[in-house]
Recover the amino acids of this structure.
């Protein structure tokens, strides 16, 4: 069906991001849910008494299960492909996106790696054009791959750079 | 996003700390006075509050005086240490006494030059010169303030250098393309949504007041009319005050705009700097057949939407034919209004029950055109060469209906090209083809030093590319100088 072809890879397959991204996101989710549930539970518990705590914990658990289920799906949706003249990035489950960024339009490349990402040996590469709407971010790349991609993108960007 | 744009992105970089060359010039000596206004107002405000509370007017006077003296000295020092001049291919601005700051603006990245004259500046005969280079949310280098003659001379020199010709070339001659008649500007203001809403609001309250005549509530009624007055004032200011005596002219340096009632603005946008144009028609203008043109120029976006509106007006109000003429001028080589359009497919009616029949897009050799809107009509044009990136987006509802939207990203500004609600295979094809069209168009786009190419064109070239359609790489153009 053509719905699938809309986000089909240009070649054989998308290059996928590291599976470790799932572990990382699950850890982040776990921490967020625990912190939020604690805060909300304590506040509600003080105002409405013990039953409210159970509701907060229940809501937290539901969010957790839902998130745990969603994260691998979201991970599977990420993909990128380096073509001759442009980079393709796709992501999203509910809102699916495919971004085509010509190397010649690239203004700069960001490589970011937070403390948790570093623990998993991951990094995020982001391309910036002169348009803030350009949505070309690839999270969960192994550090070596991120560095390779950055170097390749900057080299290609320089070679094909066009004036605004 | 912590990384600052590299030299590739912006025009400024922290230069090496070397002494300011001797021939560099200072800003206008009245600068400290004009810039000190805010400071003095603050002093009066704070001191005045204090004085009213304690009732000691003497101390208040002293405070204000002290602030004025300190502010004046600071302003004088800052003026003394700020100097500008040309350093190789760039404009260099050195400023700061303790923290020396040296900024270099690369002229090959120049997107626009504006000369603004605020009311106070007009009375004192000074103006502000703003340079827009791509990258960076605000104007890179507002030179506040210069004598009027100096500003005009500097603008000519900046444009000449950016164009790649002799710096002493006098300002290029211009041809007036369009002047907005005052009566039309007034009517366009009256027919704006904000103005009508304000009038209806005031009239409504006034009528209600007539029926319940009661002297006790007069003040309350009058003050409740205030939002209406503000709406009218805002409409008057935004359309009439700003676009008063609007003149659009064209010259080899690009197009020029002059406008303004109290604060005047002179904009110059070099050729090939237009990133996109939108033709808009508010509902109330339809009877008159008027439209407005907004334009995207890199660096013009400004921090607030108000700023961006101020600088992105290409025509505040014009007839359709006049606007079409201007559109052809700023987007040479194509006629966006005669591009054949493809309509959106039937399923789009679920997402745009009223507008889906109007939803359409079209493509020619140079531009992509998107039309939409029933009440507020909108025709967006983006040159292929200015496409920054292409995105396909599909939300859950669109997925159910078998639709997807294609976004053609441009530099920030009022112009956004979204080809909404197409069939999936069509959307994918549009995106892929647009990327390819953009790639080809970039190769033949106007080079950074546009006049250098112009000169080259007139001289016969050995390889027979005298028509200028060959792919002149930007780098080789630069080597010419």
């Amino acid at each position: 069906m053509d719905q699938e072809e809309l986000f089909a890879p240009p070649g054989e397959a998308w290059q996928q991001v590291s599976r470790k991204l799932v572990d990382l996101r699950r850890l982040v989710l776990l921490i967020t849910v625990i912190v939020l549930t604690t805060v909300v539970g304590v506040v509600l518990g003080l105002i409405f008494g013990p039953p409210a705590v159970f509701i907060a914990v229940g809501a937290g658990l539901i969010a957790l299960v839902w998130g745990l289920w969603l994260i691998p799906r979201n991970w599977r949706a990420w993909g990128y492909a380096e073509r001759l003249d442009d980079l393709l990035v796709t992501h999203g489950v509910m809102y699916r996106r495919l971004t085509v960024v010509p190397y010649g339009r690239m203004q700069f490349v960001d490589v970011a790696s937070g403390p948790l990402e570093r623990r998993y040996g991951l990094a995020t590469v982001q391309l910036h054009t002169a348009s803030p709407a350009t949505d070309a971010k690839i999270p969960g790349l192994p550090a070596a791959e991120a560095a390779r991609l950055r170097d390749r993108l900057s080299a290609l960007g320089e070679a094909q750079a066009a004036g605004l | 996003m912590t990384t600052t744009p590299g030299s590739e992105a912006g025009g400024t970089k922290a230069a090496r700390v070397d002494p300011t060359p001797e021939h560099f010039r200072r800003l206008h000596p009245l600068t400290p006075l004009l810039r000190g206004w805010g400071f003095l107002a603050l002093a009066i405000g704070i001191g005045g509050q204090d004085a009213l509370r304690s009732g000691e007017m003497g101390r208040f006077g002293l405070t204000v005086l002290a602030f004025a003296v300190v502010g004046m000295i600071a302003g004088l020092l800052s003026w003394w240490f700020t100097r500008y001049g040309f350093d190789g291919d760039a404009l260099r601005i050195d400023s700061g006494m303790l923290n020396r700051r040296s900024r270099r603006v690369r002229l090959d990245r120049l997107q626009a030059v504006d000369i603004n004259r605020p009311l106070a500046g007009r009375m004192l005969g000074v103006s502000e010169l703003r340079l827009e280079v791509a990258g960076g949310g605000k104007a890179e280098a507002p030179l506040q303030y210069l004598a009027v003659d100096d500003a005009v001379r500097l603008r000519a020199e900046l444009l000449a250098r950016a164009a790649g010709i002799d710096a002493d070339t006098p300002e290029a001659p211009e041809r007036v393309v369009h002047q907005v008649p005052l009566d039309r500007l007034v009517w366009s203001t009256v027919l704006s949504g904000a103005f009508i809403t304000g009038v209806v609001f005031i009239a409504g309250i006034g009528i209600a007041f007539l029926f319940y005549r009661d002297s006790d509530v007069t003040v309350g009624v009058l003050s409740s009319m205030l939002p209406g007055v503000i709406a009218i004032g805002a409409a008057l200011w935004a359309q009439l005050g700003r676009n008063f005596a609007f003149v659009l002219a064209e010259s080899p340096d690009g197009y020029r705009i002059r406008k303004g009632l109290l604060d005047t603005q002179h904009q110059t946008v070099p050729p090939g700097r237009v990133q996109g144009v939108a033709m808009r028609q508010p509902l109330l203008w339809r009877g008159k057949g008027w439209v407005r043109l907004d334009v995207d120029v890199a660096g013009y976006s400004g921090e607030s939407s108000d700023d961006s509106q101020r600088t992105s007006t290409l025509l505040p109000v014009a007839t359709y034919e006049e606007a079409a003429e201007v559109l052809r001028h700023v987007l040479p080589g194509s006629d966006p209004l005669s591009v054949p359009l493809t309509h959106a497919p039937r399923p789009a009616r679920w997402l745009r029950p009223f507008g889906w029949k109007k939803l359409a897009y079209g493509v020619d050799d140079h531009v992509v055109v998107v039309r939409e809107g029933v009440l507020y009509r909108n025709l967006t044009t983006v040159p292929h060469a200015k496409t920054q990136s292409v995105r396909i987006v599909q939300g859950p509802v669109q997925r159910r209906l078998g639709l997807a939207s294609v976004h053609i990203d441009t530099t920030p500004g009022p112009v956004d090209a979204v080809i909404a609600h197409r069939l999936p295979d069509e959307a994918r094809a549009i995106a892929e083809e647009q990327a390819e069209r953009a790639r080809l168009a970039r190769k033949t786009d106007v080079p950074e030093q546009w006049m250098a190419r112009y000169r080259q064109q007139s001289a016969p070239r050995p390889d027979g590319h005298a028509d200028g359609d060959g792919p002149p790489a930007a780098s080789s153009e630069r080597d010419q100088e």
Observations:
- Chain A touches chain B at residues 2-3, 5-8, 85-86, 94-102, 104-105, 107-108, 110, 112, 126, 128-136, 157-158, 161-164 (CB under 8 Å).
- The first strand of chain A starts at residue 79 and ends at 82.
- Chain A has five helices and six strands.
